[in-house]
Amino acid sequence: MTDDQQLTLWLGATRYYLGRRTYAVADFCGMLRRQWAFLPEATRKIIERDVGEAFQLDDEMRRWGPERDASRWRPLGDDCDRKQWERVRALWLPTAAPHTASTIIKER
After folding, report:
1. How far is it between the farthest Cα atoms of the chain?
2. pLDDT in tens, 64-107
3. Which positions ≥6 away from 23 have C-beta within 8 Å?
4. How far is CA 28 from CA 22, 35, 94, 107, in A?
5. pLDDT > 80? residue 53
6. What secondary structure, in 3-state letters, does 49-86 show?
7. Does residue 39 contact residue 10 with C-beta atoms inside 8 Å?
8. Helix (H) or strand (E) holding 103
9. What b/e readout covers 1-17, taking b as 16+ CB neighbours within 10 angstroms?
10. How far from each other are the two terminal CA atoms of the chain, in whole angstroms?
11. What's the Cα-to-Cα distance from 88 to each of 16, 28, 53, 94, 99, rounded to whole Å?
12. For a Cys-Cys bond, which of 8, 10, 32, 75 suits 58, CB 3.0-4.6 Å?
């Protein structure tokens, strides 16, 4: 597979799974973590950017608290999905402290 083909496949899949609320997020994130070291640098950088932006938006939405709308779509999905994305983000940001909805709400 060429670098361009890997970019198309992995970036497209990452963008597809961001915000999904399904067990498949864990499956995809596991595959992404296992393949991370083999991905072209350009592909990794774009995924890092997209996932980082999703974390920023997700943090902001979670600060609103569950009283706003607990069923509302979030950029990283539900808490269980967010935990999987935290494991992905740890590949390039190993010191990132994992946040849960309760810790983010307490920061308000």
Report:
1. 47
2. 766 566 567 889 999 999 999 999 999 999 876 555 444 444 43
3. none
4. 11, 11, 20, 30
5. yes
6. HHHHHHHHHHHHHHHCCHHHHCCCCCCCCCHHHHHHHH
7. yes
8. helix 101-106
9. eeeeebbeebbeebeeb
10. 46
11. 15, 10, 14, 10, 14
12. 75
**Percent of the chain predicted with pLDDT > 70:** 81
Q: Where are the domains positioned within the chain?
A: 3-106
Contact present, 81 and 40 (Cβ < 8 Å): no
Contact 22, 62 (CB under 8 A): no
Task: Tell me how far apart the alpha carbons of residues 108 and 13 are, in angstroms, rounded to a whole number.
Answer: 33
Task: Select from 10, 33, 46 the least CA-distant residue to 94.
Answer: 33
User: Residue holding tokens 């963008």?
Assistant: 15
The structure tokens listed for 3 are 């670098």
